[in-house]
Amino acid sequence: MMKQKKKWYDYLWIFSLTYLILGFFNILFAWLGLLCFFIPLAIAVVKGSKAYCNKYCGRGQLFALAGGRFGLSRRKDIPGWMKSKFFRYGFLIFFFAMFFLMLWNTYLVFAGAGELSTAVTLLWTFKLPWHWAYRGTFFSDGVAQFAFGFYSVMLTSTVLGFVTMILFKPRSWCVYCPMGTMTQLICKARHITASRKL
Question: Quick one: pLDDT band at residue 78, thresholds 50, 70, 90?
Fold first, then answer.
């Protein structure tokens, strides 16, 4: 059996890994993570597909690589509760509640009503000092506050992904990933809309 030739998008895991490393040294690189928010949504809205999740998600590739090729996963079946709509939609709501709280804190800094926090909040609970990653900017401190908050979100979701990768199958994170759930809802809505037009 011939080995399938790799495509350029099979190496997007390098982007995900580089993103985490760059954010460790300079928090302003965290803004690049917005690509992982807007591109999946754009593909879902325009194409009505989850092509991003299936082909272009570097984080999913990273989990597959670490859990598969490097054998860091127990490869156990994903529990039913993790695949349930109740858990996936509940996690989506919780995730966006934390995301909007982060945006609110960013707004307060932009408005001068709050001070810049040079910490990364892991798992929405543990504040990790991250001051070395910020050396100032020509822009408002709000720009840095968003970067710290957004990097916290990205790091937290990566840690959760690695934990479930180790406990279950390599790409277990993909089952309850908020972006995956949201793009799935968009695709369903487009399909329903298209069906009604016929």
Answer: very high
